[in-house]
């Protein structure tokens, strides 16, 4: 029985190290997300300065009365049979040929937009990718923590049997 407890302790140690690595990865992803958001907001502010505050504002965004449109990037679950218990999120780009209601958001602000506006769009897209990766890490971390809890209970049961 002591061998069983020792094996559980080894697995617990490995899972705890995995959890620490996942926490570190999550913190790094959130820092990257924050930097991408700050960069996107900065480029958006520069675009607003260049084009004027009325040309880059909520007035250019579509309204409820406007033409219907679909998102050009959507978050979807990973379709894999090996990940049945571990749903992983991924970004899916919707092509205009698949869905005619997809619009290029930069066109809401005119035909000739400053380069800063497209840089801002790219930074926000990168932020979305960082956010999805952070959520995937959180899912893996939660599963690891659940496994640790189960093994702690198993360890207590093994000690009682000894």
UniProtKB/TrEMBL annotation:
One Pfam family of this chain: Vma22_CCDC115
GO biological process, one term: vacuolar proton-transporting V-type ATPase complex assembly
Single Gene Ontology MF annotation: unfolded protein binding
InterPro entries, alphabetized: Vma22/CCDC115
UniProt xrefs under PANTHER family: COILED-COIL DOMAIN-CONTAINING PROTEIN 115
The protein, known as: Vacuolar ATPase assembly protein VMA22
UniProt organism field: Acanthoscelides obtectus (Bean weevil)
């Amino acid at each position: 029985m002591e061998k069983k407890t020792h094996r559980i302790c080894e697995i617990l140690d490995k899972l705890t190290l995995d959890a620490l690595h996942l926490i570190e990865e999550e913190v790094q992803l959130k820092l990257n997300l924050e930097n991408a958001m700050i960069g996107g907001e900065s480029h958006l502010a520069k675009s607003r300065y260049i084009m004027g505050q009325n040309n880059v504002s909520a007035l250019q965004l579509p309204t409820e009365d406007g033409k219907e449109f679909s998102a050009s990037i959507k978050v979807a679950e990973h379709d894999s049979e090996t990940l049945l218990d571990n749903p992983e999120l991924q970004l899916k780009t919707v092509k205009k040929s698949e869905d005619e209601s997809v619009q290029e958001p930069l066109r809401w602000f005119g035909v000739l937009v400053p380069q800063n506006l497209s840089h801002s769009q790219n930074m926000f897209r990168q932020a979305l990718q960082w956010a999805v990766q952070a959520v995937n890490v959180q899912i893996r971390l939660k599963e690891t923590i659940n496994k640790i809890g189960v093994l702690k209970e198993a360890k207590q049961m093994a000690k009682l049997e000894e």
